[in-house]
Amino acid sequence: MAKKNKNEKRISNIPQKVLESANVVTYREGMTVLDLANGLNKPVALVIKKLFLNGIVANQNQVIDRDACEVICLEFDCELKDEVVTDAIRFDEFVIDDKPEELVSRPPVVTIMGHVDHGKTTLLDTIRNSRVALGEAGGITQHIGAYQIKYEGQPITFIDTPGHAAFSEMRARGAKITDIVVLVVAADDGVMPQTEEAIEHAKAAKCPIIVAVNKIDKPAANPDRVMEELSRYGLIPEAWGGDTIFQPISALKGTGVKQLLESILLVAEMEELKANPNRLAIGTVIEAGMDKARGSYATFLVQNGTLKVGDFLVCGDIFAKVRTMEDDRHIKFQEALPSQAVMVTGLDGVPLAGDKFMVFSSEQQARKIADERKIRTKNKELEENKPKSIDDLFNTVDNKNKELNIIIKADAQGSAEALKGSFLKIDVPDVTLNIIRSNVGTISEDDINLASGSNALIIGFNVRPMPQVKASADAKKVQIRLYKVIYDAINDLTLALKGLLDPVYEEVETGYAEVRQTFKVSKVGTIAGCYVTEGYIQNNALIRLLRDGVVVYEGKLNTLRRFKDDVKEVKAGYECGLSIDGFNDIKVGDIIEASKMEEVNNG
Ligand code: GDP
Fold first, then answer.
1. Core-most of 243, 306, 359, 516, by most CB within 10 Å?
2. How far apart are alpha carbons 321 and 75 in whole angstroms?
3. Atom 24 of ligand 1 has which residue's CA nearest to it?
4. What is the per-residue pLDDT across 193-233, written as a single tens digit (0 to 9) for each?
5. What is the β-pairing status of strands 94-95 and 9-10?
6. 560-575 per-position pLDDT tens digit
7. Which of these, 101, 173, 80, 84, lies nearest to 360 by C-alpha position?
8. C-alpha distances in angstroms, 31 versus 35, 60, 308?
């Protein structure tokens, strides 16, 4: 289920049909005589009769008020409790707390990840097409974002968008939909950058990984090399004493795919995936859209409970009454069980992928919650411009222990290792530091996604994010801290972990300029003809010279000119000439990042 955080609420106080025991009935606004009879587990005719004897004439579809409900409940020796709905508008933060005896096994939900061209799409297609060979109906399929197959009678759901971009996007929105990651690695290519990224994403999400060593039909295939390379990432094959399943396959020819499905079911069994089909459904939106024929539609992954045609639900802040449900084969369903993905119509708008949905027992309640959530979304947008503090980044593991996830990006392997080693030595009681990624290179979009999904802090050492990456970090409220001295980084982090970080002066970027030309001028040195691409640059700015995202020089400006005049400031969209104090090795294509010192609150 969803990642735990300190704001989560237990859902057991939300009345559901299943929670109504023989002598307790939950009163809901808009309750009908029939609802009351169902709650009491008595024939509706008998309830109508009791009402009549109490001076109330009503038919079974009539709404009854709380007092009348109470009278009837007393007649049947039942207690009437009020529905607790105050928190229901925060349903996306709830952790479902079903009683163990209500839980049954549910099918696994699998995402396929790996480097580009290693065969993810081919594998998804081969598995989808294997339905006929496995004795299921085939036919023309449509892309709805997920599909389910049955292997030896046991269903497996596949998320039909391979790669980790969608996976991390979902996680960033707090949605955990994947139970098992199948990591596809081409045996003729081995571990590649996106293989590594996929491993980090899967590990951060605490998803078990099965390795599919693909393209074994190729003469250049070398599965042993893949095993050896992946061992370095802690994925050690069973044959070598580890616990990771490596399945050699040819996604193209279908070799080994059955064994892969068997492995998925094996891992699923070990994971003991469970759900309670007898509750109102909850789950996550996988994809959504709108077209003329269907109106608004969305693919829902049911994660608990059973979704039914006619159900009233809220997804994101949109109300829906489920009109139709169908799978990728256009097969229509009246009910969708846990782990099933269905495309649903009947939505009042288009939700976002990653939005949670929840079914409510009455239309009135669902509409009310959707409306309240709309207002909340608006208020939240206003409020969310505040940056995250370090405190917000702590994940509460239990009442006492906290975790802080860290991503280290450094200019050299040596510094990354040194930082990692030093960070792991920081010892603060009740706080655990998890380094979820540590590598060399500039801060990338994928780092931002991983940080956003894992609530992590990015530590950059002698590297700087490019402007578009910085913008994305700001938008996703990802905190980046940049250091030049290892000691400063360790010191800051230690203080942060102790909750003692004082407000400090920090550099605030004011703008960026791109070097388009260079000239040598005697006495002055190199003058760079620049174009300010973002923000502004001031003549007293501190600057960093970035070449391919790596800091080449840090210092301050010497001169800033427009045409022949010295100026104080140049804004985005204008050209300027500048020189850097004590540095002449400026090259075309370099990026100048300008900043100034400002007092900031470190949180
Ligand atoms: P993706 O980018 O990971 O989704 O990779 P694709 O599924 O698009 O595959 C990339 C290329 O590799 C395509 O030309 C496939 O036909 C080919 N390919 C995929 N699996 C295999 C395989 O098992 N054997 C061989 N020989 N080629 C494969």
1. 359
2. 35
3. 215
4. 999 989 998 998 889 999 999 999 999 999 999 999 999 99
5. parallel
6. 998 888 888 999 999 9
7. 84
8. 6, 10, 20
Amino acid at 67: D
Q: Report CA(184)–ligand 1 centroid distance (Å).
A: 10
Among 477, 481, 476, residue whose Cα is nearest residue 407: 481
List C-alpha distances in Å: 278 to 38, 153, 519.
15, 22, 75
Q: Give me 387's structure tokens.
A: 């940056």
CA distance 302 to 280: 10
For residue 104, report the distance from its CA to the centre of ligand 1, in Å.
37
**Residue 412 has what pLDDT?**
85
Burial class from Cβ neighbours inside 10 Å (0-12, 13-18, 19+) for residue 403 reads middle
The pair phi, psi for residue 413, each rounded to 5°, is -55, -40
Cβ atoms 297, 344 nearer than 8 A: yes
Q: Pocket around ligand 1: residues whose beta carbon is below 6 Å from it?
A: 114, 116-122, 162, 214-215, 217-218, 250-252
Using CA atoms of 328, 333, 335, 336 in order, give the dihedral in degrees to the nearest 10. -10
Direct distance between the N- and C-terminal alpha carbons of the chain, in angstroms, rounded to an integer: 30
Strand order in 180-186's β-sheet? Answer: 146-151, 154-159, 109-114, 180-186, 209-214, 246-248
Residue nearest to atom 17 of ligand 1 (CA): 119
Instruction: Determine the Cα–Cα distance for residues 215 and 119; give it in Å rounded to an integer.
Output: 8
**Ligand 1 center from residue 122 Cα (angstroms):** 6
**Atom 14 in ligand 1: which residue has the minimum CA distance?**
117
Whether pLDDT at 18 is above 50: no
199 alpha carbon – ligand 1 mean position (Å): 20
pLDDT at 7 over 60: no
112-129: b or e for each residue (b if 16 or more CB lie within 10 Å)?
bbbbeebbbbbbbebbbe
For every residue of 234-294, DSSP letters joined together read T--BGGGT--B-EEE-BTTTTBTHHHHHHHHHHHHHHHT-EE-TTSB-EEEEEEEEEETTT
Q: Which residues pair with 149 in a beta bridge?
A: 156
> What is the number of the ligand 1 atom nearest to the C-alpha of 249?
23
- Going by alpha carbons, the residue nearest to atom 2 of ligand 1 is 117
Mutate to test the pocket of ligand 1, among 252, 253, 255, 257 (most ligand atoms within 8 A of CB): 252
Pocket test for ligand 1, best of 112, 118, 122 (most atoms within 8 A of CB): 122
Nearest atom in ligand 1 to the alpha carbon of residue 114 is 3
Tokens for 33? 């005589």
Give phi and psi for 408, each to the nearest 5: -105, 130
Residue 3 DSSP one-character state: P
What tokens does 260 get? Answer: 């892969």
Q: Are 355 and 314 in contact (CB under 8 A)?
A: no
* Tens-place pLDDT, residues 282-335: 999 999 888 888 889 999 999 999 999 999 999 998 999 999 999 999 999 999
Q: Please give the average per-residue pLDDT across 158-163, as a whole number.
A: 84
Cα distance between residue 298 and residue 302, in whole Å:
12
User: Ligand 1 centroid to 249 CA: how many Å?
Assistant: 11
Which pLDDT value is given to residue 502?
A: 45
* Atom of ligand 1 at shortest range from CA of 115: 3
CA-nearest residue, atom 11 of ligand 1: 117
